[in-house]
Amino acid sequence: MHDTPKHKGLRNQLVKTVESKGIRDKNVLGAISNIPRHLFMDSGFIDFAYQDKAFPIAADQTISQPFTVAFQTELLQINPKDKVLEIGTGSGYQTAVLIDLKAEVYSIERQKELYEKTKKFLPKVGYVAKKLKHGDGYKGWSEYAPFDKIIVTAGAPFVPKPLLSQLKIGGRLVIPVGEDVQIMTLFIRKDKSEFEKHEFGEFRFVPMLKESAK
Q1: Residue 64: active-site member
Q2: Which pLDDT tens digit goes with each residue over 58-104?
Q3: Which residues are annotated as active site (predicted)?
Q4: Which residues span the domain enclosing 127?
Q5: pTM for this entry
């Protein structure tokens, strides 16, 4: 659980890499610089923590590539105190980025093993989400809706209607849509029934699980 000057130096290099790929939001770059990604990874991958790559974590899931985390976060346009719904807590790295940006994060994880692990881990490293839940991300979290921003960190074969309905007017939903390859998609809610849609190229994510959480 150590964060050394060497790790901080590697993070600064990672920030330069992510910036060179087009990330411009200084707050997002600051979060990538602040968060000790190596602590979110299994010990066998720690030496690779500051490469701009995805790596396996528990339950056949992955910790996303830092560029992808930064890209999705930049699209969200996070403001302090934004109420953000995250679908797919995973390792908690994306969650930590949102918390570093002073968002109030409500996060759902489908995999019980990951949920239990990350729920204990995040507070230990100083990142406290508003609420974490083991559940079905396709249903969103109506109890706490509406949300200013919603982020989906797994490949969705379609856009779940509950997520669109739980978005505030003016709110932003960022979701990778597709089966084998996903198109990063941004929805901006204009009014009760109208959404503005923008597409941002191909990405690869682990699939968003369809079955209900047990």
Answers
A1: yes
A2: 777 888 999 999 999 999 999 999 999 999 999 999 999 999 999 99
A3: 64
A4: 5-203
A5: 0.94
